[in-house]
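Problem 12. The chain below contains 100 residues. Write out its predicted structure in token notation.
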Amino acid sequence: MASQTPTLVPRGALLMTILTEGTTPTTFPTEANLGTWNGRAGAPYSMVLDSMGTQPRMERYFNRPRDTFILVELPSMRILEITASDVNSALASLRMRLGS
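Solution.
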């Protein structure tokens, strides 16, 4: 099901996640960590780095565990749902919202 992610953008939706940890849970993620996820792991969804420095980590800000997916409606750029689940469950929720 994860291979269906690229078909969502033309339908006005985006699935994304935030990389909140580096090589260990106590380190901030780096651009190299992000490259590893996007390259070697082949993450079939958009992934961005967590904020660094004095800002709270996103898992704390959204009050969700680290494996969190954000479902975005592209025309309005509105967050439809923040879900703590695996990628296939997040995709199923997004597809249901899109009516397919």
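Discussion. The domain at 2-98 is CATH 3.40.30 (Glutaredoxin). Students who got a different answer should revisit the alignment rule from Section 12.3.
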